[in-house]
Amino acid sequence: MNLTLQLAKRFREVLLDGLWIANTNFKDQLSDVTCEQAVKKIDSLNTIAMLTFHIDYYIAGIVNVFEGGDLEIKDKFSFDLPSIESQKQWEELLNKLWVDSEKFASLLEQMPDSRLDEVFVDEKYGTYRRNIDGMIEHSYYHLGQITLIKKLLKNQ
Predict the structure, then answer these.
(1) Buried b (16+ CB within 10 A) or exposed e, 52-66
(2) Where do the H-state alpha helices sit in 1-156?
(3) pTM
(4) Phi/psi of residue 111, each to 5°?
(5) 9-24 tens-digit pLDDT
(6) What is the SS3 assignment for 119?
(7) Which residues contact 8 (CB under 8 A, 6 or more apart)?
(8) Residue 1 above 70 pLDDT?
(9) DSSP 14
(10) CB-based burial of residue 122 (10 Å sphere; 0-12 exposed, 13-18 middle, 19+ buried)?
C-alpha cells in the first residue's frame, strides 16, 4: 500500500470509521449527540459543537489546498462557530464534517506519494506529510475532549 493510501486510512479511522487507536471515532462519538448537548457549556471547556466546527474548519481549509486553492484559514477564526439553535443546524454541521472528511481522504488517496515531501503552501508550514499527520493528531486530541465532555454531560 502506498503512503498516501495509508495516511487516508488513518485519517478515516479517526474521523469516520476506525476503532483501532481510541476504540472510537468522531462519527461514532457524535452520532448520539443532540443539539442541546452539542451547545451545552461546561465551565470553561469548549462545547462539542465548537470542537466539531474547529476540526471541520481545518479539514475544509486543507481540502481547499488539495484542490489547488490557497490556504485561506486562520487560527484566530477556527473557533468562530455560527450560532446553532436547532437540531437541523447541528445535523448540517455534522454532515459538513462527514462530507469534508471524505473529500479530504479521497483527495489524499489520489495524491502521489512524492507530493508528501513537498512544501505545503509555504516553507513555514512544512511539508504535506507534516500537515496531514498534524491533522490526524489534532483530530485525535479533540476526539478525546469530545469523549470526556460527553461523559461530563451524562453526569450532570
Answers:
(1) bbbbbbbbbbbbebb
(2) 3-12, 26-30, 35-39, 48-66, 87-110, 128-155
(3) 0.96
(4) -75, 135
(5) 999 999 999 998 889 9
(6) strand
(7) 105, 106, 108, 109
(8) no
(9) I
(10) exposed
